[in-house]
Amino acid sequence: MLGLDIGGSSSRARLVEGGRIVAEAEGPGANVAALPPPVVADRLAALLGGLGAIGADACCAGSAGAEVPAGRERLAHLLAGLLPGSRITIVHDTRLVLAAAGLDIGIALISGTGSVAYGRDHDGREARAGGWGWLIGDDGSAAWLAREAAREVMRRSDSGAPLGALGEAMLEATHAAGTTELVGALHALSEPGEWAALAGVVFDTAAKDPAADSLVERAAAGLGELVAVVRRRLALEGPVVLAGGQLLNQPRLEAAVRKQVGAAVRLEEPPVAGAVRLAELSLS
Q1: Phi first, then psi: what are they for 227, rounded to 5°?
Q2: What DSSP letter does each residue of 114-172 carry, written as one string?
């Protein structure tokens, strides 16, 4: 059984035989909706190459961007060529969270490079909120947080106000001598993962800069609204599973999100474990 977790910043593959992990590999993100097809193809080939010589009876790929039909079809075609004879299942990467938590029913909230909430009820109905991509939305995600931080810094610059701890940290993180260079450095970033890498400056300065602290609260509110939308659409309260690199690794954000959504559990297994579980289910 082969599981693939294809995210915006990173991707992970896990090969399991007889319930035992026999190989794992990691690589860069390969969002099928956000990146050029040749880039996705090269990165997937390299990811699978990291597993060595493999053959898989079934493969489930949970991928960012899989909600876009053209991207989904492209990914299916790529994997069929890379894994001849394997039963291929493609789902949005949010589906992996519930599966990795051992749940068939519940709500998954992800805040990593992007953000999205996904729910599945007792009747198998599904609902998703957010996940629009970094150029349009992804409120509460790392890419969103970096963009909003940059906007705050530029507003301060335009008004002649001090850049503050947040501004100085943004300049340092981008190796910019001033806000003009900051804008140039940010426009040179072509992938959402590159933006997401700057989100840490917000958390690093939240205790010293009121605007940074406010951005964390706004991120939590945005994530809470995603869960609220899924709850309304499915008439389902939970359980709620928290996932994503940013949400699980930034205690300030996690605490603020818990105030928004109520009782929730952290995802303890990596999402790729959910991909393996779904691959198994595809054969039954």
Answers
A1: -65, -40
A2: SEEEEEE-TT--EEEEE---TTT--TTSHHHHHHHHHHHHHHHHHHT---HHHHHHHHH
Write the pLDDT tens digit of every residue in 185-231.
999 998 888 999 999 999 999 999 999 999 999 999 999 999 999 99
Among positive and negative, which fits the CA dihedral 99, 58, 60, 127? Answer: negative
Q: Chain-centre distance of CA 89, in angstroms?
A: 19
CB atoms closer than 10 angstroms to residue 14: 22
Q: Give tens-digit pLDDT for 83-99.
A: 999 999 999 888 899 99
Domain 142-266 has CATH 1.20.1560.10: no
CA dist 214 to 20, 173, 220, 234, 245, Å?
45, 20, 10, 31, 20
Of 34-38, 120-124, 128-132, 237-241, give the lowest mean pLDDT range: 34-38
Check residue 34 and give its pLDDT.
Answer: 74
The answer to whether 2-101+269-283 and 142-266 have equal CATH topology is yes
d(C-alpha 93, C-alpha 116), whole Å: 10
Q: Which residue has the tokens 């989904």?
A: 72
Class of domain 2-101+269-283: alpha beta
Q: Where are the domains of the chain?
A: 2-101+269-283, 142-266
Query: What is this structure's pTM?
Result: 0.82
Task: Give the pLDDT band (50/70/90) at residue 69.
Answer: confident
- Containing 243, the helix (H) or strand (E) segment is strand 240-243
Give bridge partners of residue 25 from the DSSP assignment: 13
Start-end of H helices in the chain: 37-49, 69-82, 94-100, 142-159, 164-174, 179-187, 192-196, 200-205, 210-234, 245-249, 251-261, 271-283
